[in-house]
Amino acid sequence: MTRILHLSDPHFGAADPAIAAAFLERAAAMRPDLTLLSGDLTMRARRSELAAARDFVDRLPEPRLVIPGNHDIPLINHPIDRFFRSFRRYQETFGDELEPELVASGVHVVSMNSSRAFGFHADWSEGRLSKHQLTRMQEQFQNGPSDHCRVLVLHHPLLALQIPGRAVVKPLKELLETIEAARVDVVMCGHFHRSQIRATGLSGNWKSIISQAPTVCSTRLQGEPQGFHEINVTPERIEAVHHVYQQGAFAEAGSWAFARGENGWSDAPVAMSGTGGDPTYVADAPH
Q1: Which structural domains are found in the chain, ordered by start?
Q2: Residue 141 near residue 182, CB atoms below 8 Å
Q3: Can you give the pLDDT of all 287 residues of the chain as single tens digits?
Q4: H or E element, residue 237
Q5: Distance between CA 184 and CA 137 in Å, rounded?
Q6: For residue 76, how many other CB atoms are within 10 A of its CB?
Q7: How far apart are the C-alpha atoms of 87 and 96, rounded to whole Å?
Q8: Is the four-CA dihedral 223, 225, 226, 230 of positive or negative sign?
Q9: 54/58 Cα distance (integer angstroms)
Q10: 254 DSSP β-pair partners
Q11: CA distance 111 to 281
């Protein structure tokens, strides 16, 4: 079994240091085989925020993969940095690669940078992908090890919420088509600060598991506590666990299981585990 920790949106600059420390303690105790962070490391890409984020990332269990989010681009009050060198501060802190790739512990991870500094649309925080990125992603998986679990990481979400002004990544249809063509097993993203875990697909040809993680330690909550996802992978079964922060520590809130078939992943029986409590603290049930 391969254990993956999926966390997102720590937002240093608006992070709770005690919760960040509690997560690092919990992560170390879990001894994952892989740690994936799906963007928004900072609030405003200030250098002090990036330094705090780097200290946090350096303490995450290895191997690890980190990508930027839309909050890791400077605001428009720094026009040169925003419009002409959008990710320079991030790259100075975390390295030049904005779309890292990783093969480890039977998992092939490909990432895409869905964040844009500006565009011909009203909300620049929305996620966008290019045709070139979609083609490159499919080629990376096709050229990778065929017997590994295929994991795609991006910042912006694929599963919508019934909240005005909260848009999924675009172009969604083309992304889902490419995910099916590449036979991606798990897609990991964040941005909404809400937990969702679901097996879905555009057609009946292939279904992937979508892991949309909540914020791991930010104070900017959207109706549920801080949390993260634990993804346990075997060739024929994947189990996902939603951990939430309550009463000074992280604990399990719910579990989901998926079985692999000819057309991808489908729901499998699993007993709910963990703390229970207020159902708003539990990830949306798969359907």
Answers
A1: 2-281 (3.60.21.10)
A2: yes
A3: 999 999 999 999 999 999 999 999 999 999 999 999 999 999 999 999 999 999 999 999 999 999 999 999 987 656 766 676 789 999 999 999 999 999 999 999 999 999 997 766 766 678 999 999 999 999 999 999 999 999 999 999 999 876 656 789 999 999 999 999 999 999 999 999 999 999 999 988 999 999 999 999 999 999 999 999 999 999 999 999 999 999 999 999 999 999 999 999 999 987 544 333 333 333 333 32
A4: strand 237-246
A5: 10
A6: 12
A7: 9
A8: negative
A9: 6
A10: 242
A11: 28
In this prediction the pTM is: 0.91
Phi/psi region, residue 7 (left: phi>0; alpha: psi -120 to 50; beta: rest), is beta
Distances (CA, A) of 125 to 53, 132, 166: 20, 21, 10
Give the number of other CB atoms < 10 A from CB of residue 252: 15
- Asked whether the beta carbons of 38 and 72 are under 8 A apart, the reply is no
Q: Please, where are the H alpha helices in the chain?
A: 17-30, 47-58, 79-84, 88-94, 131-143, 172-182
Q: How far is CA 40 from the centre of its chain?
A: 10
Q: Is 187 helix (H, G, I), strand (E, B) or coil?
A: strand
Cα–Cα distances in angstroms (integers) from residue 163 to residues 130, 140, 156, 191, 269, in the given order: 26, 34, 15, 13, 30
- Is the distance from CB of 109 to CB of 76 less than 8 angstroms? no
DSSP 190-232: -SSS--EEEEE-SSSS-BEEEEE--BSSBS--SSS--EEEEEE
